[in-house]
Amino acid sequence: MKKYKNPLVERYSSKEMLYNFSPEKKFFIWRKLWYNLAKVQKELGLNISYEQIQNLKNNLYNINWERVEFFEKKFHHDVMAHLHAFGEQATIAKPILHLGVTSAFLGDNTDIILMRDGLDILLKRIINIIFRLRNFSLEYHNTPTLAYTHYQPAQLTTVGKRAVLWINSLLMDVNELEFILKNLYFRGVKGTVGTAASFKELFNGDLEKTQYLDKKLSKIFGFENVFSVTGQTYDRKIDTQILNLLSNISQTSHKFSNDIRLLQNLKEIEEPFYEEQIGSSAMSYKRNPVYSERMASLAKYVISLSNSSAIVAATQWLERTLDDSANRRLVIGQGFLTVDAILIIWNKILENMIVYTKIIDNNINKELPFLITEYIIIESVKNGGDRQEIHERIRIHSMETSKEIKLKGKENNFIKRILLDKNIPINKQKINKILNPKNFIGFSSEQTLSFIKEKVNPILEKYHYFIDK
Questions:
Q1: What CATH number has the domain bearing residue 124?
Q2: 32-57, pLDDT tens digit by residue?
Q3: Domain-embedded: residue 429
Q4: What is the number of structural domains in the chain?
Q5: Which of 149, 193, 246, 401 sits at a 20 to 30 Å CA gap from 88?
Q6: Catalytic pick among 280, 297, 402, 450
Q7: Is 98 a catalytic site residue?
Q8: Cα(301)–Cα(25) distance, rounded to whole angstroms?
Q9: Is 44 within the bounds of a domain?
Q10: CA distance 325 to 45
């Protein structure tokens, strides 16, 4: 209890994402990189024996952490520490370990693998959110609700139509995520400063062997493409692109959390609140939207991180400078862990989100009389009224009604005022006929169903194996 504990580890992120950025996975990949490098080098004719390859393979997963720690204190260099620790175990292969490569061969290729795998984890979570929102939208596609602009009552929409706006933002994030995965290249083997000079020497000037090594290693680790050119490191704009994606997912999530908190204040929609959950230490009646608030809090953090990667990319020197290293150790892992936590919370909210349709109806009825003013004008003009005069009469009645509601707490009597006004030629039967909320939702239902059919279902079908039903 006397050391700082990271809340992302202690409280928020999943075991899956925590393992993805764990030391164990990272250093297992380092050993796999060394092993496969030697394996392909042997294939290309270098003086590496079968026994050495087997020696490496047999020691891939038995890292001696105490020896690693000893060597790191001695050398103050993590790659050299692991190289010596591996060499102590794979003694036969020790002479050919790390042949022709630099530290970036391990660090950069591993980071790309971890980010790719992390994006796969996030994609699965997003697909499940889209799946739940799709079902929610279908259930409420025809349920009228007040739409708001400037957080003031506007016209009507439907609960389902509002939900597909959340889905639409997520689909934009999925498109960006897919693009990044498709264009996430392996760094490969480029030598010390990216010129592959060491491999020119090893392969006696044979460029084709060097290119084969580059491409073969990339495919072994699941990448169809490898960077054609690098300095010592891959372009740090790759990190910026990925952190920008994480920021975009966080922006989408924050927007959802804002909407839920606003709707919960209106008592229309409520996030889950469990039987023994406490909303406030002082006000025992409160049902605070703590999950939505947590989403918003975490999202703010990720949005701020994206700027850090941009600064790193902008300030690299020539073929590389090491002032990126400590920053990247913090920013990349923390960004993924935080977005993972955000999406877990979002899924949790959707599993038990509550819609109070009676409250929604009550809120509509308070505002609906004002929403039919355009219809009243049109019908009055049809009956011989003057458009401008009718508009002015309605404006006066609207203002007076609002004043009575706000200052005196009276109910909305706007329709009654209209019917009593002899200068507005419209009858009660006409108005009652139109006073149905579904007459004012436009094409909300049709838009929702069409969007789900054309945009949402294809994505869910594409990634059906991700869905936890």
A1: 1.20.200.10
A2: 999 999 999 999 999 999 999 999 99
A3: yes
A4: 2
A5: 193
A6: 280
A7: no
A8: 25
A9: no
A10: 35
